[in-house]
Amino acid sequence: MTIRLLILLLVASVTWVGTSQARGQDPDPAPADAAVDPPDQSPPPDPVSPMVLVARALREGTVTIDRLENERDPQQRQTLMSNLNRGVSTIQVNDPGNPRLHYLRGAMFFFSGRKGDAIDELNRFVETTVGRNEWKAHRMLGDLFLGEFPSLAKAKYSSAAALKPNEASILIGLSRCDAALGNTEDALSFARQAVDAVAPDSIDRMANLNYVSQLLAQDGQFEEAQRLVTAALNLAQNEHRKSPDSLAEMTTLHAQYRIALDMVRARLRETPNQADQYVLLTKYSREEVRIRGVISLIQILALLDSGIESFESGAPLVLLEERASLLVDLGRTEDAKEAYEELLRSHPNHGIARAFLQENAPEQPNPSPGE
User: Fold this and answer.
1) Are residues 268 and 223 in contact, defined by beta-carbon separation less than 8 angstroms?
2) How far is 250 from 256, CA to CA, in rounded Å?
3) Are 210 and 226 contacting, i.e. CB atoms less than 8 angstroms apart?
4) Where are the domains of the chain?
5) pLDDT in tens, 55-89
6) Separation in Å, CA 214 to CA 136, 210, 219, 311
């Protein structure tokens, strides 16, 4: 009897353990006072509401339009256009009836050269309560109509000027309209106002100075015209000094030297026997050629960097040598030092690299392989 009872108890115990394990229960549960992490009861995060997405897209889109007006770097402009397009798509999905969608779409078409689409969208926008008070929309319409319809463009610029007095871009637009309509004095007046509306040391002043000088030259006032071109050249040189390795600033400086050369040639055509103008012609020509060469080297360097990055297992020695040599030619000594130091890490016995570093960085020990 006792043996049968023990057997029954043993079978019951085994059965209970197996059942607990099948249910995922611990056969030896933790004591009641043991610390157990409570289940996460926090609600899932709320999705961003459509109105928040639209407000963000409108705000960022407006900022992007402002940046597109001033950005000269092609790659940066492409990035900004992508951002603007993404914002437009967000508004179209979440709030297609928003009137400012016409403004963002119009600006997107404006900057991408889709003239007809830009005019349609911006016209719809300025007909709304919000749009009639947006001066940039009126000015963009002026820009779009200027080439073929100067009178209509002037009306749009005038609407913009009523909303934003003393804005240089609007004043230039009004000047161009008067120039196209044959109102030379009014064109010069608006152009001079545009120059005065911009800070003296601002690069934005450069284009306005060039424009006024063009009007003055057409009117036979070559001396004052050249003075303004020289002022614009000084601004371009100052911007280049701030960013000497910038392709955009170098390209701007090159274009300004070409404008200065055109002005010198115009003066010599008017009055050939001017020794000082021949001196300027020689000086500007040399600098224009030099800068053109530097721009070519910068473009080649960008292509070379792209090529080097394409070699996953390490670029060939000849490409590393060419890159370092290009940096030397560009006068970028510090970058050249880094390039030759990197070259020595993989080729410790490279004679040109060692000679360059001994001459330009004698206080630094040559890097060891793998450093």
Assistant:
1) no
2) 10
3) no
4) 52-133, 201-290, 311-360
5) 999 999 999 999 998 887 888 999 999 999 999 99
6) 26, 6, 9, 50
